[in-house]
From TrEMBL:
Belongs to the short-chain dehydrogenases/reductases (SDR) family. InterPro entries: NAD(P)-bd_dom_sf, Sc_DH/Rdtase_CS, SDR_fam. Keywords: Oxidoreductase. It comes from the Eukaryota. Gene3D superfamilies: NAD(P)-binding Rossmann-like Domain. GO terms for molecular function: oxidoreductase activity. SUPFAM superfamilies: NAD(P)-binding Rossmann-fold domains. This is DHR11 reductase. It comes from Cisticola juncidis. Pfam families: adh_short.
């Protein structure tokens, strides 16, 4: 809410609407998109074949559900120049030789494939909606503390080993993608 107020007072165009949503709970995701539809007076609609899925993993499910709902929301409101941005990871392009992250890498590879498949389907549907996958390296988020929950020193060392990206860097990447002209696919 603070960031939304800062954006508004700085005179940025558009509207940032903060919403608390646990991406591991489909009902909360659907509730969030229901609120978006209500705020923007959407109707009914359906998307490309991409949106028919069954995936047990949170990273894959949340991305799939959010993408499906975002696309349907855009179609309901006749938006043909929207942008779906998936925050991925470099682990979606290579597997780090650490056994604790191999399954994480598998889910991020899925995000890479889902985004590319979506991009192709959106082109095939002749829509101007773009799909982008942002794949950062190590971002200082606290993820290492969850990954190494029995070893907080190892977790802290993860972030001290290199100059990590910050949340602001990710926000700047999203802003860059959104500010790219319509003919540019990032």
């Amino acid at each position: 809410q603070k960031l939304a107020a800062e954006c508004q007072s700085a005179g940025y165009p558009g509207l940032l609407i903060p919403w608390k949503c646990d991406l591991s709970i489909e009902e909360e995701i659907l509730s969030m998109f229901s609120a978006i539809r209500t705020l923007h007076q959407g109707g009914g609609g359906a998307g490309p074949d991409f949106f028919s899925f069954s995936a047990p993993q949170v990273n894959v499910m949340a991305v799939s559900i959010c993408t499906r709902e975002a696309y349907q929301s855009m179609k309901e409101r006749n938006i043909d120049d929207g942008h779906i941005i998936n925050i991925n990871s470099m682990n979606g392009h290579s597997v780090v030789p650490q056994s604790v992250v191999h399954f994480y890498s598998a889910t991020k590879y899925a995000v890479t494939a889902l985004t590319e498949g979506l991009r192709q389907e959106l082109r095939e549907a002749r829509t101007h909606i773009r799909a982008t996958c942002i794949s950062p390296g190590l971002v200082e988020t606290g993820f290492a503390f969850k990954l190494h929950d029995n070893d907080p020193e190892r977790a802290a060392a993860t972030y001290e080993s290199i100059r990590c990206l910050k949340a602001e860097d990710m926000a700047n990447a999203v802003i860059y993608v959104l500010s790219a002209p319509p003919h540019v696919q990032v």
